[in-house]
Amino acid sequence: FFFKQKTAYDIMPSLVGSEMCIRDSNRNSEQRIEDAAERLGYTVDLTLGSPRFVNPMLMYWNSTIELRASVEFPVLMQVMGARFRFGVEAGNFKFTNANYQEVNGSPVALDATFSGITLMGIMSFPAGPGKIKIGAGMVGSSFGYTMESSYGIRIGSMEIRAGIRSTEALSGKTADSVDLGRVGWMDGQIVLGVNL
Asked: Are strands 106-108 and 101-103 parallel, antiparallel or unpaired?
């Protein structure tokens, strides 16, 4: 019938116990992230892409197949529940002018090319057999950025994914140094991923 009132002495051990539980759960969470990163190891993605949607500047330009390779490092970060990895990517692109066009009053030659190599630092958000990537770096001679989303199936340490990617160059130039201004395109892509 009677309830005993707890003293400060009775309360303190329970607080220490709850603090220990919180501290231990944080350690367990950190260990799970470390274990997941170690299991992932290095990830190599080989990508084959085909530009389909372009901004108005590239409307009458023909495109070729793009090849890209990326490496993600065995580091897994977590901020507010979102897990991500860092990596690097290199690839190529090529567009050829197929129609008469003027840019800022300067004619662009028929068969003029806008081509080069992309070198990007990337942040990858793995999600099961899917992945979202964002990156920034060089698109030819211009600064640019990219966003990508792909999903597929996992077979052992390999993944086969399909998805879309958008690439933007802030100041694209042709091989003849004609400034095209801001150019962008969207690819359909197939990705083969391997965890090492």
From this structure: antiparallel
Please state which of the ranges 103-112, 135-144, 162-171, 176-185 shows the lowest mean pLDDT: 103-112
Q: What is the pTM of this model?
A: 0.77
HEC per residue, 66-86:
EEEEEEECCCCEEECCEEEEE
The b/e string for 73-92 (b: 16+ C-beta within 10 A; e otherwise) is: eeebeeeeeeebbebebebe
Q: How far is Cα 89 from Cα 120, in angstroms, rounded to an integer?
A: 5
Average pLDDT over residues 39-57: 90
Rounded to whole angstroms, the Cα distance separating 20 from 122 reads 38
**3-class DSSP assignment, residue 118:** strand
pLDDT of residue 55: 92
The kind and range of the H/E element at 152 are: strand 142-155
Spatial distance between the Cα atoms of 133 and 44, rounded to a whole number of angstroms: 13
* Residue 191: exposure state from Cβ atoms within 10 A (0-12, 13-18, ≥19): buried
